[in-house]
Amino acid sequence: MGKILCAIFAGSLFVFLLGAAHAKDPSPPKKTPELLTQGKKLYEQNCVTCHGSKGDGKGQLGAALKPPPSDFTKPLNQWPYSKGDLKKVFEAITKGIPNTSMVKWDQFSEQERWALVYIVEGFAAPPKKK
Fold first, then answer.
1. What are phi and psi of 128, to 5 degrees?
2. CATH of 31-123 among 2.10.109.10, 3.40.1350.10, 1.10.3380.30, 1.10.760.10
3. CB 63 within 8 A of CB 51
4. Which of 44, 61, 72, 81 could form a disulfide with 55 if both were Cys (CB 3.0 to 4.6 A apart)?
5. pTM over 0.90
6. How far is residue 8's CA from residue 10's CA, in Å, rounded to a whole number?
7. Is 91 helix (H, G, I), strand (E, B) or coil?
8. Does residue 114 come out as left (phi exceeding 0), alpha (psi in the -120 to 50 range) or beta?
9. What is the distance between the alpha carbons of residues 60 and 62, in angstroms, rounded to a whole number?
10. 4-59, pLDDT tens digit by residue?
């Protein structure tokens, strides 16, 4: 009986640690047409009111928010929170952004959150040439 409990505990610990390691460093799924379709639908249902249909931060509620919502039409490397790092965009969607109106969207699956990352990335202007 003791060996069985020990094996169950060890197995549970392994699964927990594997999950914790995975949660800290999410690997993006492949960008597919299906994933982009899913992201577009989620964006339209949950993000447009603040970030606007063009991703410019000019949604119906956006004007009333302080600080204003992110403008995703800027070049990706100029986004204030992520500075071009898509994993930070994923983190912002997952955890929200402190001292802003950006709430966490952790109720969405990891795939759904990556779908949103790819949609907002698509709004970004090309990087400015030096």
1. -75, 135
2. 1.10.760.10
3. no
4. 72
5. no
6. 6
7. helix
8. alpha
9. 6
10. 544 455 444 454 544 544 455 668 999 999 999 999 999 999 999 999 999 999 99
Residue for token pair 């004007």 = 63
> Where do the domains of the chain lie?
31-123
pLDDT of res. 27? 83
Helix locations, the chain, DSSP H: 2-24, 33-46, 48-51, 86-95, 110-123
Q: Tell me the one-letter amino acid at 63.
A: A
Q: What is the pLDDT of residues 92-106, one digit of tens each?
A: 999 999 999 999 999
Q: Find out whether 103 and 96 touch, Cβ atoms under 8 Å.
A: yes
